[in-house]
Amino acid sequence: MTSFAAISAAAKRLQGHASRTPLLSSPFLDELAGRRLFVKAECLQQTGSFKFRGGWAALSALTDEQRQRGVLAYSSGNHAQGVAAAASAHNTPAVILMPQDAPAIKISNTRALGAEVVLFDRATDDRDAIGAELAKTRGLTLIKPYDEEQVVAGQGTVGLEIASQAAEEGITKANVLVCCGGGGLTAGVALALEQTAPGMQVRPCEPESFDDVARSLASGRICRNETTAGSICDAILTPSPGEITFPILARLCGSGVVVTEDDAMRAMVEAFLRLKIVLEPGGAVALAAALFHGDQLDDMAAIAVATGGNVDASIFAEALRRFG
Amino acid sequence: MTSFAAISAAAKRLQGHASRTPLLSSPFLDELAGRRLFVKAECLQQTGSFKFRGGWAALSALTDEQRQRGVLAYSSGNHAQGVAAAASAHNTPAVILMPQDAPAIKISNTRALGAEVVLFDRATDDRDAIGAELAKTRGLTLIKPYDEEQVVAGQGTVGLEIASQAAEEGITKANVLVCCGGGGLTAGVALALEQTAPGMQVRPCEPESFDDVARSLASGRICRNETTAGSICDAILTPSPGEITFPILARLCGSGVVVTEDDAMRAMVEAFLRLKIVLEPGGAVALAAALFHGDQLDDMAAIAVATGGNVDASIFAEALRRFG
After folding, report:
1. Pick from A19, A278, A317: which is nearest to B277 by CB?
2. How far apart are CA B55 and CA A315, in angstroms?
């Protein structure tokens, strides 16, 4: 089980490598939300999302021998870039297994960050079999995106920073809204806040039709989504909360908050107008919950984690056209 | 003459009110620029631009009697919002004279921040005469946008932060590129760096056809632009460097760097893609100089001040469509 001690240890290893992202605010957003609202801008993290923290925590926890052999990750998105950048800085070979129909820019970015990209065909290839074969023949260590203790510990450093930055603003009690896929970030933040700011209440936030965490929390057991494709919130689509993360979520979090895709796009535009940050749809879900679903929150301030900003220009322009 | 002591004093008064904005970087931008490149993200400052610093420095330096009567500012936008927000926080009435073709978001934001907005026509009205009449009849104190010692001192706090943040990155020598209108920010930053990081070389950056500072520096005397309308870089269009600012620029700065409007829009898109920040065209001019005019810079790192992010959604979407 990931512990507070593991998060503190990860924070020491991340020092000087991951950015301490700012906690932003705007009187315009306070008014729209009807409460004091702060946004933890993880889109400004290295590689454009919080995933760099987990990648760094995992890479820096490997043995020298493991680092020499290399690491493997499956991802077409933020985890790929986080692991690639962290591996490169550790002089560790990284193999990222990506679908061959992934956007060319994401493939070239991952390569530019120093990783070897292995493409597979979603329709005909078995990704897990290819990965297992690569891991076996080349001795690579698999870095899973959320159900991995060091990854949860790395993401938990977001919670340490929230506690300290909120205290500087005089805030010790707040709804802490976290965009939630498999629950690595949410679990890490909840563990960190349990020790450092026990007046905070963590609330996982998800897009409509992909609310596996909200349903799992309501029922007390792991529920699955029917599909993990078909939402613009691609960064946080996962089949279900993890075996490691769910018990932490169940013990520490309040109920889930579910938002629509339009809510997420509206929140992207508010972040553009009022905070001058770029969010991807999946990274704007927690802000959308704070702005448009305040009736589901406790009567105290809100802190929304804006998890990432890796969005195609065409989708961002569409959000501006529709809601700007 | 504004002094380093005035900047240090302003920094103390701004403490806890202005944000210490982050110094961002990306390996992709380093590669494009052909050198280490850092971006001081003043778009993340209160009110979306560095102007809040000068506004706060000026308001906090007034006598109680002056604060009770109120203040007046002329501005196409960012200085207006900076003064309006600072005045509001000081319980001081603020009247802002704005050109009627200023971006809609800047006019509506200035009103929402509590200021009274008076519009004028750039082509036909005498702004100074309107302002003088208002100041006289209502006893308002004029807060000029750049040729004002306390404003230069407030903007200079950007330079103090650059020196300290660059040192944390191991950088003591760099081209410091500053988007330059009347020279308040550029002069303040140059004064701050003269004392705190003398290995830095400040370079004012301007849009094509509005290169009054570059020409003034080249000729050694104040040159004027033929017009101050007709560029998307509205935030930094001024008739000429100021009486207070020009001698500082002439003593401390390297030659000016001039970029095209397309350069500025391309830099906005790079900031969107690689740093996840929102820049307005005038706020992207220094980044454009770093990315696309490196041949004019000294052979050392570059630090570009991204001065503001108050851009209409339609202009941002156009930049994404053309260069995204």
Report:
1. A278
2. 36
Q: What Cα–Cα distance (Å) separates residue A137 from each residue in A132, A167, B117?
A: 9, 50, 70
Backbone angles phi, psi at B184, to 5 degrees: -65, -50
Chain B nearest-CA residue for A274:
B48
Confirm or reject contact between A269 and chain B (CB < 8 A). yes
Say whether residue B277 is in contact with chain A using an 8 A CB cutoff: yes
Window 286-315 of A: residues touching B by CB (8 A cutoff) are 309, 313-314
User: Which parts of chain B register pLDDT below 70?
Assistant: 1
Q: How far apart are CA B141 and CA B114, in angstroms?
A: 17
Question: Tokens at residue A11, please?
Answer: 């924070």
Query: B323 vs chain A: nearest CA distance in angstroms?
Result: 9
> From the CA of A276, how many Å to the nearest CA of chain B?
5
Measured CA angle at A126 (ends A124, A129), to 5 deg: 150
Helix (H) or strand (E) holding A84: helix A78-89
Phi, psi at B51, each rounded to 5°: -60, -25
Q: Which residue of A has its CA nearest to B109?
A: A28
**Which residues, 6 or more positions from B160, have their beta carbon under 8 angstroms from its beta carbon?**
B7, B8, B11, B192, B196
Strand order in A257-259's β-sheet? A23-24, A37-41, A301-306, A174-179, A200-207, A257-259
Provide the 3-class DSSP secondary structure of residue B66: helix
The pLDDT tens digits of the residues spanning B2-33 come to 799 999 999 999 999 999 999 999 999 999 99
Alpha-carbon distance A312 to nearest alpha carbon in chain B (angstroms):
8
Assigned token pair, B272: 């969107």
B31 to chain A: which residues are within 8 Å by CB? 112
B273 touches chain A (CB under 8 A): yes
**A112: contact with B, CB 8 A cutoff:** yes
Minimum distance, in Å, between the CA of residue A144 and any CA atom of chain B: 25
Does the beta carbon of B135 lie under 8 angstroms from any beta carbon of chain A?
no
Query: What residues of B are in contact with residue A269 (Cβ under 8 Å)?
Result: 313
Q: pLDDT tens digit string along A134-160?
A: 999 999 999 999 999 999 999 999 999
Q: Which residues of B touch A309 (CB under 8 A)?
A: 276
Q: In what order do the strands lie in the sheet with B141-142?
A: B116-120, B94-99, B71-74, B141-142
**Is the sign of the CA dihedral A178, B268, A45, A135 positive or negative?**
positive
Report helix, strand or coil for A124. Answer: coil
What is the residue-averaged pLDDT of chain B?
A: 95
* Domains defined for chain A, CATH in brackets: 4-50+148-323 (3.40.50.1100), 52-142 (3.40.50.1100)
Q: How far apart are CA A203 and CA A180, in angstroms?
A: 9
ipTM value of the model? 0.96
Residue type, B73: A
A153/A184 Cα distance (integer angstroms)? 8
R_g of chain B, CA atoms, integer Å: 18
Size of the A and B interface in Cβ pairs below 8 Å? 75
Partners of A24 on chain B (C-beta within 8 Å) are 44
